[in-house]
Amino acid sequence: MTVLILGLIIFLGTHSTSIVKPQLRDQIVARFGAAPWQAVYGILSLVGFVLIVSGYGDARTSPLVIYDPPVWLRHINLLLMLPVFPLLLAAYLPGRIQSAVKYPMLLAVKIWALAHLLANGTLPDLLLFGAFLAWAVADRISLKHRVGPPVRGAPPGQANDAIAIVGGIALYLLFLFWLHRVLMGVAPIG
After folding, report:
1. Are 86 and 97 in contact (CB under 8 A)?
2. 128 FRET partner, CA 20 to 30 A, in 58, 108, 114, 166?
3. Residue 124 belongs to what domain range?
4. pTM of the model
């Protein structure tokens, strides 16, 4: 469990610099340049991510069950996960979805975390998904008081929304029927 917590602190801590001190990124970039900032940020994020995956995997071998969700919440989870992948793609595909939602990546993280909290009731699940949900809520609130960093993506175009929706649904189906089981060791259905 310690590895999971350490990974969450490093990963979410790195992603919280703008929440805690909005001008820190700009100050570091002005002093050292964009490439060193991106390198350190990327390395810390990768280290945190690896620790999260490793720690979560280890913690799931003998988890402490906090609550046992009813089966119908797992069905709600599957339904809530449907918009997550289109929202993730919309974050990088400027269009009407991105304009309407403003921060589709954060909304995708919030829905993903909430859906998984509903369907899973062990302590590692509560730590992982609860931490990501709390972080996404805090980041969205902080964005009301600061300007978010520009997100590089595809050039604006009318086809971007269709690409986000069709590609997102394809990714959802891929995860639902195969990739979730391969990567997480748990089949969402079946």
Report:
1. yes
2. 166
3. 65-190
4. 0.90
Q: Are residues 48 and 113 in the same domain?
A: no
Among residues 62, 94, 110, the one where a domain terminates is 62
Query: Which of 23, 38, 62 delimits the end of a domain?
Result: 62
Q: Tell me: do 56 and 77 sit in the same domain.
A: no
Q: Helices in the chain by DSSP H: which ranges?
A: 2-14, 17-20, 24-32, 34-59, 71-81, 84-90, 96-101, 104-119, 123-142, 160-174, 180-184
Question: If pLDDT is split at 50, 70 and 90, which confidence band does 151 have?
Answer: low
Tokens of 39: 């390198």
The mean pLDDT value of the chain amounts to: 92
- For residue 111, the tally of other CB atoms under 10 A from its CB is 18
Provide the domain count of the chain: 2
Residue with the two structure tokens 């009813």: 70
